[in-house]
Amino acid sequence: MRRFAISVAAVSMSVTLAGCGMLDATGGTDDASPAKGDDITVGLLLPEKANTRYEQFDYPIFKKKVEELTSSKGKVEYANAEADADKQAGQMQRMIDKKVDVIVLDAVDAHGIAESVAKAKDAGIPVIAYDRLAEGPIDAYISFDNSLVGEVQGRSLLEALGGELSITDKIVMMNGSSTDPNAKQFKAGALSELKGKVTIAKSFDTKDWDPKNAEKNMKEAIGEIGLDNIKGVYSANDGMAGGIVKALRAAGVTKLPPITGQDAELAAVQRIVTGEQYMSVYKSYPEEAENAAEMAVAKVQGRDIQFDALTRDRVDSPTDQDIPAQLVPVVALTQDNLEDTVLADGFYEMSDICTGDFKDACAEIGLKK
Length: 369
Prior knowledge:
Blueprint: E1 5-6, H1 9-19, E2 41-46, H2 53-69, E3 75-80, H3 85-97, E4 102-105, H4 114-122, E5 127-130, E6 140-144, H5 146-161, E7 170-175, H6 181-194, E8 199-205, H7 211-225, E9 230-235, H8 238-250, H9 266-274, E10 280-283, H10 285-300, H11 304-310, E11 313-315, E12 323-328, E13 330-333, H12 339-343, H13 350-353, H14 359-364
């Protein structure tokens, strides 16, 4: 199998500099005097818990990095909206009322949160959009190249379908939530690869990225298309891929069609090991979370040199243009490169993946404790 290791050239320099310690958000001889010291409060607003990454990786890694950058004097005010846009607006208002120094926001509803972003701006609080590009006057954005993520997923699905690929082959597209701008970009990227090469027999925008909704949608697709006519499934993330597998199994499938995913969730990695899921997109959440923490601390402390070096790209939202940004590299994760990615990076240990039920499957593909 070919391996897809996709990086964004324009930010490689900033990522490398950060990784080598050449960007020091806590100080530097060529910096202006900090606007704030280390005793700062960073607000972190994350969108939901259905995707395990936020509680398992993003929050603890972000918190630890802020503490490192501020000699343990800085603190993180954290809230998770649990997929409720109104709840997140209330959480953001509370952070504004508490006068936090900077807010890092992963929006439930990128359009709906714009008013709250404007309120923060009016209160003199910088807002950094994290993972999803919120509308309104944000100061910076950090995420992955979302169109490229979709392209990698689409290309991988075509690869899995093999040399006998035909325009008449029918696939199902299970896209993410319509309120998430990332979902639109994943979808567009995937379609750029899939259109004209396969037939998209059914396409869904899955409410709240909920695996249960994906399972329900897949049952509908099976009923309309016919089980034997579904050659592959594009799933925008791993949680929904799990729901898709459940629907296919309940319908009596013995050999699953290739299914894509994203996020390298542990359950998905184990499905990749057993062959139930063809691929996921591995995104370095530690890199994203740590660099977001560096951006937040540098911004509030007035470290313009470091902040600019971390945001060398530019992106546009529906409300604002030329937003400073950083786009983090992504990798297509398959059986072929588990050792070179999630294991080599310490994302998971072999003992996490190859538990009792998966020992034999791990051995079959050459993964051994």
